[in-house]
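QA checklist item 7 of 12: single-chain prediction sanity check.
[x] sequence parsed
[x] length recorded as 504
[x] structure emitted
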Amino acid sequence: MSMATFILGLVILFVGAAIYGKFCEKVFGPDDRETPAYSKQDGVDFVPMRGWKNSLINLLNIAGTGPIFGPIQGILFGPIAFITIPIGNVIGGAMHDYFSGMICLRDGGTQMSSMIRKYSNGVIYKVYNVFVCLLLLLVGAVFIYTPGDIAATQVFGFSGLANDPTTWIIYGAIFVYYLIATVFPIDAIIGRIYPIFGAILMFSAVGVFIGLFVHGYPLLNIWDDWQGVAFQAFQTVDGAEVPFSYGEYFASGHFLPVFFVTVACGILSGFHSTQTAIISRTMKSEKQGRMTFYNMMILEGFIAMVWAAAAMGIYNLGIQAANAGATGTVGAVCRDILGDVGGIIALVGIIVLPITSGDTALRGLRLTISESLHIDQSTNSKRLTLSAIIFALVAVILVFAKMNAEGFNILWRYFAWSNQTLSLFAFLAISIWMYENGKGKFVWIPLIPGAFYAFITVTYIANAKIGFNIPWTAAYVIGVVAAVVYVVAICAYGKKRASNLLRK
């Protein structure tokens, strides 16, 4: 056993970020122009804040349960995850976050929906709006469910069951916080408490990272076998729990697309583009963008790597079975590495992750709806009215997920797939922006990950039971065709837009 693959992955992540992040920054070209935080200052959403505070807030906005639960499940495919997570993060996820954030910043702190409207057409804009609203509703529900259950079962020792009143009390407390954070000025709630949450988050991530070495967690090398019993899991087939090995997906070629939908946020998350407007409205300078957007996604990749390694180590030690569930694995890792007190603090940090993503998701949904439908949000009462409608819909989804045996599994699968699919819209907008701004020779930067995820998302939904249930061979063909069409269509449309601008 060795940590060689894990260490190699960390080198790829941080060295790759230093090189490719600087390259992305050079391509975009940040300058000293006045930012929307000053030009549109309103004391609510457009508020100048310090760079370090913006960075921490953005990290907490984007890092939900995805970079923890996703890698815990993804590591069941084997140590290949230690290589694919950092590569995908550097050239896909961090790049996606940087350009999405910087374009929104330069365009006046606009919502991503407005960015899609500007750099595509009316049909794509309408499809995007429906898609993003549904995703943010799912995010809101998922990020109440998961931190609520971790708090109930791992911190307070409750059952976390639907018939336990304490479960709904905890959910209700998260709801109340979301409502407050969604309605009131960004610097009144988010700007003040997020730095504290950020400190707790970093304690948990760094604490677990150090613990991997102190406790000597055994990790497999990429060249070792991952078909053993440690990597067994279960799936529900006709109401029965049937064992299977994630390694079988890799051996049979289904590592693509399943792994990249399973891991999600540690590599790439379309949800992140919906959060860029929140931070782009509080940044004092464009030159803060690389740290705020690119490097914070790299830190999310680090969190994903740490939890992937922790899960593999605790499975290999036999402390936790691989089929015991992500929530139990999180609790077992925290207590084993950090002890009872430190474990509780770390669990608080993990609970904070989805909560701080959920509140900004719902805040972003309010802003998206208000901008798209031109709904006045100038007063607390007007913001509260729109928020109440949004929260009622989230509550319906949450109750469905909790009251049905397969409710949350269905919710999570749709959330994971739609999260990755949403990134395709951002890659499209980034590509067209490059064509229109004389950077067409660099369009490969968004098109490479865009084409890859067009293949991943289309192949997955074509085969999945929650999708079209098409056999794998046909699903792969459909996925390849979708990727080719995606690239060709963007290139043709982008060149046409650039040509029209030259004629004017």
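[x] summary fact logged: The chain has one domain: 4-408.
[ ] second reviewer sign-off
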